[in-house]
Amino acid sequence: MPQLDRIIIFPQVFWLLVIFTMFYIMLTHFFLPRFLKSLKTRKEIVKINELEASLISKRSADSQAKLKFLLLNHLSTLKKIFSMNLALNISNTKSLNTQSVDELICVMVKNSILFCNSQILDSICIKVKSVYFK
């Protein structure tokens, strides 16, 4: 077989080793540092983004706690105001006639559906709570 001839195989092995060592040197000295540098910068960017996200979530949790505290305080003051004024106190809900108010609201909703923009109406969330459960 001519491929395994002793005269031809030694130069082929020599050039194979030379080319692979040059390829290895070129990869390790030129391309690998660039790849490692890009990986390190990506890792640093991810760390920075994680820190910013944690700070933002911490701020939002703090602001939600403050908002809840303020709402509870203001609701307690409203309860005190309503309990002090007898005119604002609604103790007997059975004597209230809310049917006319419900009818007016239904007419307004119907007119807004018929005569308004549908995109605006889609953005409005309407939750109906009926008083007339039997």
Describe the model.
The structure is a single chain. The chain has 134 residues and is mostly helical. The protein has one domain (6-123). The chain is built from three helices and no strands. The model has no long low-confidence stretch (mean pLDDT 81).
Provide a count of the helices. 3
Shape: elongated
pLDDT averaged residue by residue: 81
Order of helical and strand elements: HHH
In angstroms, what separates the terminal alpha carbons? 101 Å
What class do helices, strands and sheet pairing give? Answer: mainly alpha
Portion in strands: under 5%
Largest sheet: none
Radius of gyration: 39 Å
- Structurally, how many domains make up the residues? 1
Low-confidence segments: none
| Helix share, percent | over 70%
Oligomeric state as shown: single chain
Q: Count the strands?
A: 0
Question: Which key phrases capture this entry?
Answer:
3 helices; mainly alpha; 134 residues
In short:
76% of the residues lie in helices and 0% in strands.
Compile the SSE list and pairings.
Layout: H1 6-84, H2 99-115, H3 118-123
